[in-house]
Amino acid sequence: MNINWLRTFIIAAENENFRKTAEKLYMAQPTVTAHIKQLERDIGTQFFRRSGRNIVLTESGRRFLPHARSILSSYDRGTHDLLAWEQGYKRKLNIAVSPLLAATMLPYIIRQFMERHVDVEVIVQVKDSKEISEMIEKGEADLGLLQMKPLQKTLYVEKIKEDKVICVCPHDGGDLESSPPIDIHDLFENQTLFTYNHPEYWDDLLSAIHAKYSKVRTMVVTQVHITKRFIEEGLGFSFLPEMSLRRELMEGRLLEVRTPDLKLPKASTYLITREDTEENRLFQAFLKEYFS
């Protein structure tokens, strides 16, 4: 059995179309057909039947599909492990991280960690905060960095950082020194407030805003980097963690707005793990040193 036949079979089963399978695998459609026929001949059964222009799995195909996925997954893991060993890695650390952290502090942290621990292979998966705790619980990642405290009681959770949340709006192109300060009341009355770009603090913050400002027009934008882009384009304003805004504030693309009538929250960063492994302990110790 050829491993490429299995890969073609799995993609074909997922797409139920040989043409789409050929496009995804960057091969000619006759090659896809040949792979399927060779696999069927090798196993001794038929995996697909025609349904118009598409294909449909037979009962044999449906029964074999999970085994094919398991074989391919085992092969890929084994190949990756061998290549990692040949590159000098003796251990592996699989980190799941939220988009905000991946785009801000993580690159520097990872570079410093890898320079200190050259034998540890680091794998980074960027996921939403809600997904990360589920991944750790299922063993799909070793360690998680996120902005939302997980609900699972089986996980080890540690708050490793708190960051100021500030209000920001676009630069209007004027001279900052001679321009009057931006009025937060004017923003609430005339601009759109982008919300829920951070998973933890928005419910309480919106309650405080609505208690003080009667007219607030909001728009949900669930990613920080998209929120920043919208603000730069003059579409509105928002409340974001300061660590995500350092470059934009320094370059003058965004402006901080004072909010004397609002007590702003903190944005927390949590570290979560399920097992106490040596690799996890190494990274936790490094983070504590980094943030101390």
UniProtKB/TrEMBL annotation:
UniProt entry tagged with the keyword Transcription: yes
A family per Pfam: LysR_substrate
Domain of life: Bacteria
Keywords assigned: DNA-binding, Transcription, Transcription regulation
InterPro entries according to UniProt: LysR_HTH_N (IPR000847), LysR_subst-bd (IPR005119), WH-like_DNA-bd_sf (IPR036388), WH_DNA-bd_sf (IPR036390)
Residue stretches making up the HTH lysR-type domain: 1-58
Matching Gene3D superfamilies: 3.40.190.290, Winged helix-like DNA-binding domain superfamily/Winged helix DNA-binding domain
Keyword Transcription: yes
Similarity remark: Belongs to the LysR transcriptional regulatory family.
PANTHER family membership: HTH-TYPE TRANSCRIPTIONAL REGULATOR (PTHR30126), HTH-TYPE TRANSCRIPTIONAL REGULATOR CITR (PTHR30126:SF64)
Name of the protein in its database record: HTH-type transcriptional regulator CitR
Annotated organism of origin: Oceanobacillus neutriphilus
